[in-house]
C-alpha cells in the first residue's frame, strides 16, 4: 500500500477527536496581516474556514484591512498617521476606511460562495452588533477609533442558525450613531467573548509566542494565562504583540476556551493548528492545562 495514502488516512483519523469535540461549537477567526494581501494565501484561509464549517464547526470571520486602507488613504493624497500603533482617523479617513473594509468584506464573501458555502458579510453596525466609545491612546484623541463597549450578538446567532457563515468587518457606532473604525483584534475578542466561542484564532505575521523573541526554537505551543502574565511582566514581549496578548488573556478570562496565535503566512495554518496534536502556533489557555 502506498505510504503516502496511508499517511493521509492517519492524518484524517488524527483529526477525528477534534472534529467530535468542536462539532456545533463556535470558532471565531480573526483574519488579517499578510494572509490578506496575498491572493493565494487568502484562498487557503477561506478554504480552511469552509472546511471547518462543512465538518460541523460554526465559524465566524472577523477581518481587518489596514494595509488596504493605508493604500487608499495614500491614493487620495493623505498621509496615513499612527499613534502607538493605532490609526489616526479623521472624518475623511473614516469614510475611506468604511468603504475599503466593505469592499474587502464582500470579496471574502465571494470567495466563500465560490467554495459552495453561504456567507453573509456584515459590519458592526448591522443589527447593532458593535457599540463603541471613543478610544484614546494614552489620553490622546485619535479621532473615529472605537473601543467596543457592547456586543449584541443576536444577528450572529440568527445567521449561524440559518447555516450562514458570518463575515464581520470592524466598523461600529457610538451612542450618536457616528461610525467608528475598530481595531480588528479588539473586535474579534469582543465578539468571541460575547458568543462564548470555543476557540478564537488569530492569523498574524508571527509564528506565535516565543520565550526568547531572538530564538525561534523557543516557540511556546501551549501557554496558560498565568505564564503569559509572567512573560509580559518580565518585559520579554513588546511591540505589536503586547496588545494582541492582552486581548488573548481577556478573552480566555472571559470564557473563551482557547485562543490560538498562528502565522497566517503558512498555507492551511488554521487546519494544522486545530486538527493536529502538536499544532503550529501558540494556544493560550486557562490556568488548568488540558
Task: Provide a short characterization of the protein structure.
By secondary structure, the protein is of the alpha/beta class. The protein has ten helices and 16 strands.
Describe the structure.
With 290 residues, this protein is an alpha/beta fold. Helix content is 42%, strand content 26%. The protein has 10 helices and 16 strands. The chain has helices spanning 3-22, 34-37, 39-54, 66-75, 91-114, 154-161, 184-194, 225-233, 241-253, 269-275; strands spanning 26-31, 58-63, 82-83, 86-87, 119-123, 130-137, 140-151, 165-169, 171-173, 179-182, 199-204, 209-210, 219-220, 222-224, 258-263, 282-285. An 8-stranded mixed β-sheet has the order 5-8-2-1-11-15-16-14, sandwiched between helices. It has a 4-stranded mixed β-sheet with strand order 6-7-10-9, with helices on one face. Strand 9 (171-173) and strand 10 form a beta hairpin. The two termini are 36 Å apart. The mean pLDDT is 88.
Strands ordered across the widest β-sheet: 5-8-2-1-11-15-16-14
Please compute the radius of gyration using only Cα atoms. Answer: 19 Å
Largest sheet: 8 strands, mixed
- The amount of beta strand, in percent, is 25-35%
Q: Give the class from helix and strand content and strand pairing.
A: alpha/beta
By DSSP (H or I, 4+ residues per run), the number of helices equals 10
Mean pLDDT: 88
Uncertain spans: none
> Which range best describes the helical content: under 10%, 10-25%, 25-40%, 40-55%, 55-70% or over 70%?
40-55%
The succession of helices and strands, N to C, reads: HEHHEHEEHEEEHEEEHEEEEHHEHE
Total E-strand runs: 16
Quick one: overall form? globular
Distance between the termini: 36 Å
